[in-house]
Amino acid sequence: MPIRLENVGIAVRDLDAAIAFFTDLGLTVLGRDTVSGEWTDTAVGLDGNHANIAMLQTPDGTGRLELFQYLHPDAIETEPTRPNEIGMHRVAFSVGDLDDALAIAARHGCHPLRGVATYQDQYRLTYVRGPSGIIVMLAEELGQG
Question: Which domains, from first to last, does the chain contain?
Fold first, then answer.
């Protein structure tokens, strides 16, 4: 049976702010919609499911994020995840210039959790706390060019 990753879904508190963050990093919005009804209740497993959604795609066309802002049932606020917690961990992006990506993130009030690291002279990388507390890894491959 063939299988491929379709997208990563992330619930956010402010859909427009999350879209602004990810589009500034270079993703494009493929579409937006408001979903509700019996089909969403069945698919998601929540009665009265009603959400605003957006599908974003990386410039190379291989990665997609689906962002949801729940209208009903009410979104449940949780403590921001930490890198060592079990469950959904982070979303990671390769970037052409880490310093440029960090400047974009900073304009959205998003900064590295600790700093920028170098992994075996192959990557410069960091985790930033993105919109709605999402952990976003940004990595620049070194020696390219």
Answer: 8-72 (3.10.180.10), 91-141 (3.10.180.10)
pLDDT in single tens digits along all 145 residues of the chain:
776 878 998 999 999 999 999 999 999 999 999 999 998 888 888 899 999 999 999 999 999 999 999 999 998 888 888 888 887 778 999 999 999 999 999 999 999 999 999 999 999 999 999 999 899 999 999 986 5
At 119, list the tokens.
């992994």
Question: pTM for the whole thing?
Answer: 0.86
Nearest to 124 by CA among 104, 97, 145, 106: 97
CA atoms of 103 and 91, how far apart (whole Å): 18
Residues sharing a CB contact under 8 Å with residue 37, sequence separation 6 or more, in sequence order: none
